[in-house]
Amino acid sequence: MDSRCVILDIGGVLELTPETGRVGRWEQRLGLSTGAVHERLGEVWQAGSIGAVSEPEVQDQVADRLRLDAVDVEAFMADLWAEYLGTPNNELITYVRGLRSRCRLGILSNSFVGAREREVAAYHFDELVEQIVYSHEIGVCKPDPRAFEVTCARLGVRPEDCLFVDDVAVNVEVAQAVGMQAHLFEENAGAIARIADHLNGEIPFSG
Hints:
By secondary structure, the protein is an alpha/beta fold. Helix content is 52%, strand content 13%. α2 packs antiparallel against α3. The radius of gyration is 18 Å and the shape is elongated. This is Hydrolase. Pfam families: Hydrolase. It comes from Streptomyces rectiviolaceus.
């Protein structure tokens, strides 16, 4: 197998995750002002993204901060996970699956406590790549350089042998700063062409 490695983000890359309007619907339903849900739960979302709270603790905080009963908490969390999981980017997933014999493959994703179980069940990402590195499991989020360093260490690869694909510009910039090649995902054709260039040994001036 080639020593080259491809590492991909999940949300916005392997999953298509447009906003569903769920927050606005809940604010309207609860008679809250625009932005109130984020204001009340922002600390909870941050804690969940680095694994500082458990799923039951998240649900307790949602109930307390939004004054919801158990039925509404379940509905609120179901809406959250539906938006979080989105739909699979089947074209890109199929392409990446075909790379398994050609290169090392990994995932680095900013995430939320409970994501691994749901994404593995829905999309079998554990069968797509060798390592899935979630922010809620390592305690740091992109663009912290440590997230990229942990991913390389777990895959046993050098940063310079890696191409990182993400839909957030600052994450791409930090990946480049730690020595990786990186591509800002905008659509499948561009990402697939960039991965092919990486595996064929062609290094573009930017991307």
